[in-house]
Amino acid sequence: MQPSSIKITVAGIQFHLRCLDPSVTSILENPSIRLLLNGLKKESPRGNDKCLPFTLPLVNTIISRLREGCFGPYTDQMLETVILTAFFGFLRGGEISSRTCFFDPNHDLTISDVSINDHHFTLFLKHSKSDRNSEGVVVYISESNTVFCPLSSMLTYLRSRPRAGPQEPLFVTQEGKPMSRAWFASHLRLLCQFCGLPPDRYTAHSLRIGAATTAAASAPVSTLKAMGRWTSTAYERPDVRAIVDAQKAMSSAP
Description:
With about 250 residues, the protein is mostly helical.
């Protein structure tokens, strides 16, 4: 029996005890019971994570496949930009796509959230899982010295939308709808199939964990945490130079 099942069973016992005597103290708060449950949780074997990382070679493979032609010129270019931006920006699926097809400019990425510089671009995320105060955070994404450059890809994509207003969605489908999580997930699965990869083992989250795996080979822990925004201090004053250098090192990783 898994620890979670044991805890549910104990909670059931607690419920029946409260029915008999509402004043009875919670057995879940008993120090011995809590110690037992924590010990079982630590000793319980972890289940295998089905989600595999998109390593840099795999990212390059799927980008190459898109450049050969998959869904049409516009969609292929947009997906290339989304994938490279998500990978080098350590972005979560919900940060780069809309929750649904109903766009919210106060929550989702807009054209104005992108700022292009000479050797990198930035994204302003209005929301993020670890942004507890909802202050927003700037994500820095560097150019690379390879043909799979996120900056070049973003510039090419933006040129395909010359009439887009500043408050329009950053990523829109060929039909003009905001790119939703479901749309991105379905097209990523198809892309995996085109590349001979098991579509049930790769998700949008695979880009983030793949980026972390790649960066961990050369970046110090402090920079890695800032890149992935895993700590609250990452929102204070990020070392932009360290992040940019680490991203350049990622692009040339074996």
